[in-house]
């Protein structure tokens, strides 16, 4: 830990661990409901559990991005954070808004728009909170004597993510218009500007963990940014096929959706290429596992599986089925969740001075969670393909089909148990690291740059 203010990141990471745990709990509630064990229905109906599960995903990932920025930006700027006090105020207010939103879901206080269910009054509080965060980061960069491509790509990714939240706050009476602009938030986040955030964080970790020259890594970062904008913006069109928009979106969305895997493939090639060129071995192998794993799994989940069901000829059958859930689970896990865990794995030994990456629990966390996630993805894939055939091709009733695929959800729950075991190992290691220590100030464990 080079700077005292980087300690702020710890509390964001700790919040991440809590929110991730809650997300998993609600995932199990839905999983058991799917196999008929819905004893909590009177208190937590399926739609409430689903909204809570998906929104917790978004919130814990954004919290992780904020923590990553509070750790990375001071180091890249070679100065302390502009205001530590402001960062803590922002974290507390962020948590308060999140708690109110989740509690509101349980009392049917929401907008009912998938991924954007948060009630409108809370939207304005989110905007104020994120602007506070961006101001703190921007002033840190503005007053710094040092600039880097990694630093600026990360900042502009976060800035654009904030700006693209605004279209989701516009009110429309027309369902097509509402859905059209909702995808400006959802798609252009996860397959647009969040990829810039991913690129910035990946660049930082690769510089630290591989020892490859910064100039080489940041040249690759330009390629990744270019591929992201080439495909991601017009690739939004694959969400417009079936909401009443003009038919030309079939062609536009199809073509640019086919290009979207290029950005994730570029990230995977970039990370593996930098690892092969590494000058020295960094002792923190766990952080390196999560970093390389994120690049590879994001290509499989977000790139390959995304393209596999967004091509118009396929999507006309798979749209709105469990095939979408299959893609979503592995895409979010590989592209963003694993990346947040990579940053935490790298930062925690530096903030606390405890080198827990030398033990077995870190490897167990990595392999159990990844094998478990692949198992869940496989179960959802088989269930989704079965659903498409029985429901969309043979015309069977939706509820009848759901009974036919119950067995696959039993398999998914078993895989989810293995995944949860891996995350439990990760959280236990996080707790064992303890709080940030002043003794760790001024140095990072095993830095190669």
From TrEMBL:
InterPro entries: Cyt_c_oxase-like_su1_dom (IPR023616), Cyt_c_oxase-like_su1_sf (IPR036927), Cyt_C_Oxase_1 (IPR000883), Cyt_c_Oxase_su1_BS (IPR023615). Its main location: membrane. One of its GO terms (molecular function) is heme binding. It is found in: Membrane. Gene3D superfamilies: Cytochrome c oxidase-like, subunit I domain (1.20.210.10). GO terms for biological process: aerobic respiration; electron transport coupled proton transport; respiratory electron transport chain. Belongs to the heme-copper respiratory oxidase family. PANTHER family: CYTOCHROME C OXIDASE SUBUNIT 1, NITRIC OXIDE REDUCTASE SUBUNIT B. This is Nitric-oxide reductase large subunit. It comes from Leptospira jelokensis.
């Amino acid at each position: 830990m080079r700077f005292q203010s980087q300690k702020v990141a710890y509390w964001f990471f700790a919040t991440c661990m809590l929110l991730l745990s809650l997300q998993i709990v609600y995932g199990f509630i839905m999983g058991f409901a799917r196999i008929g064990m819905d004893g909590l229905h009177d208190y937590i109906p399926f739609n409430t559990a689903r909204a809570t599960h998906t929104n917790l995903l978004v919130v814990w990932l954004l919290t992780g991005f904020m923590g990553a920025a509070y750790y990375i930006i001071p180091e890249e700027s070679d100065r302390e954070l502009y205001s530590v006090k402001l960062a803590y105020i922002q974290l507390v207010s962020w948590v308060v808004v999140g708690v109110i939103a989740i509690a509101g879901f349980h009392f049917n206080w929401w907008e009912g728009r998938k991924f954007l269910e948060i009630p409108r009054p809370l939207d304005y509080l989110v905007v104020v909170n994120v602007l506070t965060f961006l101001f703190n980061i921007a002033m840190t960069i503005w007053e710094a004597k040092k600039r880097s491509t990694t630093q600026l790509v990360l900042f502009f990714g976060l800035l654009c993510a904030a700006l693209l939240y605004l279209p989701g706050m516009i009110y429309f009476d027309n369902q097509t218009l509402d859905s059209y602009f909702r995808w400006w938030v959802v798609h252009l986040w996860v397959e647009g500007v969040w990829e810039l955030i991913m690129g910035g964080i990946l660049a930082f970790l690769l510089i630290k963990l591989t020892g490859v020259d910064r100039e080489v890594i940041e040249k690759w970062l330009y390629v990744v940014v270019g591929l992201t904008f080439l495909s991601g913006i017009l690739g939004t069109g694959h969400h417009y096929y079936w909401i009443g928009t003009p038919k030309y979106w079939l062609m536009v969305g199809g073509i640019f959706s086919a290009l979207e895997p290029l950005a994730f493939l570029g990230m995977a090639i970039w990370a593996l290429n930098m690892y092969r060129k590494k000058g020295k071995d960094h002792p923190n192998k766990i952080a390196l596992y999560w970093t390389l794993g994120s690049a590879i799994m994001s290509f499989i989940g977000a790139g390959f599986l995304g393209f596999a069901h967004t091509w118009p000829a396929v999507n006309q059958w798979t749209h709105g089925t469990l095939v979408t859930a299959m893609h979503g689970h592995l895409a979010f896990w590989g592209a963003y969740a694993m990346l947040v865990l990579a940053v935490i794995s790298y930062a925690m030994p530096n903030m606390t001075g405890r080198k827990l990456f030398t033990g077995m629990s870190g490897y167990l966390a990595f392999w159990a969670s990844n094998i478990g996630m692949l198992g869940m993805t496989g179960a959802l894939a088989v269930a989704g393909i079965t659903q498409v055939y029985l429901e969309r091709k043979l015309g069977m009733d939706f509820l009848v089909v759901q009974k036919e695929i119950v067995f696959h959800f039993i398999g998914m729950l078993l895989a989810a148990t293995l995944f949860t075991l891996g995350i439990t190992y990760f959280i236990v290691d996080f707790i064992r690291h303890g709080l940030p220590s002043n003794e760790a100030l001024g140095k990072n464990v095993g830095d190669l740059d």
